[in-house]
Design brief:
This protein is mostly helical. It has three helices and no strands. Helix 1 packs across helix 2 (37-44) and helix 1 crosses helix 3.
Length: 70
């Protein structure tokens, strides 16, 4: 069987973030200090409880191990 390569995803960028940094960053999107349209939409759809729950979740997800090098 062929082995599947592990390519980085956008979710990989969130893993292991400190919860306070995650909340702080999404608050920047909520209040307009950062302006990426996709992230503004996501951040503004979350209340404080949801934002905190996501922050705790991503802080506990371990970083993925890189795939094999070519």
């Amino acid at each position: 069987l062929a082995r599947r390569r592990r390519y980085p995803t956008y979710a990989d960028r969130l893993t292991g973030w400190e919860a306070a940094a995650f909340v702080r960053t999404l608050k920047f999107y909520q209040n307009g200090a950062r302006t990426n349209p996709v992230m503004v939409s996501v951040a503004q759809s979350l209340d404080d409880e949801q934002l905190q729950a996501l922050a705790v979740y991503w802080a506990t997800v371990p970083k993925a191990k890189p795939g094999p090098k070519r």
